[in-house]
Amino acid sequence: MYATLDGVGSARALERLCSHHAAYRWLCGGVPVNHDMLSAFRRDGGALLDAVLTHSLTGLIAEGLVGLEEVAIDGTKVRSLAGHSSMAGLDRLARIETLVVERIAGLKQDLDEHAGSAERIKGALDRLVELEVEKAGARKRTGAKPSASRWCRCGTSRCAGCG
Length: 163
Description:
Elements: H1 2-5, H2 11-20, H3 22-28, H4 35-44, H5 46-62, E1 70-73, E2 76-79, H6 92-114, H7 117-142
Antiparallel strand pairs: 1-2
Helix pairs in contact: 2-3, 2-4, 5-6
C-alpha cells in the first residue's frame, strides 16, 4: 500500500526499495523480499489485493492521513487536478474511491506496458557477452589480432577529440 502511494508498481522496483530504503526495510520487518514473491502475490490475489488497496486508501484519504495530491509518472511527481473543493460534498468517499481505483488501474497498466522489458534487455546483454566471448575465441584460434576498438576512451564511437 505504501508503494502504491509512492507511485511504485513494479515488483523489481519494490524489491530494490525494500533492500535500500529505510522505511521499506522497516515495513518488511527484516523479512527478505524478492520480486518473484511479490509478482506471485499480486498475480494470485489480484482482485482481492485491488479491493483491499482501494478500501484502505479510500479510508486513509477520507481521514486526511494520506493524499493523492501528487501522482508519480516515471519517477517525476506531477500535481493532480483534484482540488480541495472537489472532495467536498455528500459523495466524497465515492469520489475518493474513484480516484484510488483510477490510480491502481494506472499502476497496473504501467506494469502491463513495461512487462518483460527488463528481461529483454538482460537477455540482449547476455547474448552480447556470449558473442564477444565467441569472437575472442575465434581470434585466438586463428591467431588474428583484435581490430582497433570502435569505441573511444571517452565512451563514444570514434570521437575526433580523443584521436
